[in-house]
Design a protein that fits this description.
Blueprint: H1 2-6, H2 10-17, H3 23-41, H4 48-57, H5 64-73, H6 99-102, E1 105-110, E2 117-123, H7 128-142, E3 148-152, H8 156-159, H9 161-169, E4 172-176, H10 186-198, H11 208-223, H12 237-247
Parallel strand pairs: 3-4
Antiparallel strand pairs: 1-2
């Protein structure tokens, strides 16, 4: 009856019911599924550039603009691109302490070539023991030759006689950033910024041990071994280190 009223042939109506998706639509659907998988595996940390490079490495030929369009259509965004709101404004918020901001400290040692965090230590206070433990962990795992250069700021922990004696006893040479010149520590500061943007700013840690475990999982399980870095030609720090060891 509707076909007669609208003067539409019945064959046209039945044909519209049998309409199938085009090849392009099917491709977009399959690619979007892969994008969602990569995005979820990164805990929503990856944006279009890193998802694009991951797709390329998987053997898929696709442009960055197409990835961006598909992500926009599927409403997929990196959590580091927006201000995080852990609770709905209509929910009653239960205040909790941010343990990493005020009551805990992380000392990290980075290999400047691979960008890998090769040593770290987590504590309730910022002391010389904390940074010595971080350096000791790095030294025991990397086993560097004498003459290794370690660069730090002029913090009291690094200029203390205890730390300087420890460094000298291991055949390590100390280097310091000058006052008013923060650029020398840009790489380690970049790591701390990544840690905040991709982890700390999105989580409320109920206690010290939970925060400590989260730092281990982020550094060892994500940053060193899974997170690709644009400055490393979209490789992971662990892969770069492995390549260095294989070529040695």
């Amino acid at each position: 009856m509707m076909c007669e009223v609208l003067a539409v042939p019945r064959s046209t109506y039945y044909h519209s019911l049998q309409k199938t998706a085009s090849t392009r639509e099917r491709e977009n659907h399959a690619i979007t599924k892969k994008i969602i998988q990569i995005h979820q595996e990164s805990k929503e940390r990856y944006g279009a550039p890193k998802i694009h490079r991951t797709l390329l490495k998987s053997g898929l030929s696709i442009s960055l603009k197409r990835v961006q369009r598909l992500m926009t259509k599927a409403k997929i965004r990196s959590i580091t691109k927006r201000k995080y709101r852990p609770y709905s404004s209509r929910e009653k918020v239960r205040e909790r302490k941010n343990l990493l901001n005020r009551e805990t400290y992380l000392a990290s040692v980075m290999d400047l070539h691979s960008k890998k965090i090769v040593g770290y230590s987590f504590s309730r206070s910022m002391t010389t023991d904390l940074v010595m433990t971080a350096l000791g962990n790095a030294y025991s795992t990397q086993k560097p030759a004498k003459g290794l250069l370690i660069h730090t700021d002029l913090g009291s922990q690094y200029t203390s006689s205890e730390f300087m004696q420890y460094v000298e006893s291991h055949g390590i040479i100390q280097s310091f950033s000058q006052k008013g010149c923060p650029y020398d520590n840009a790489c380690i500061e970049s790591f701390h910024a990544i840690l905040k943007k991709e982890e700390v700013n999105h989580v409320q840690y109920p206690d010290y041990n939970t925060a400590k475990l989260a730092m281990f999982q982020f550094i060892e399980g994500w940053y060193n071994r899974k997170r690709i870095h644009s400055s490393l030609d979209y490789n992971t720090p662990q892969k770069v280190e492995d390549q260095i060891r294989q070529s040695a």
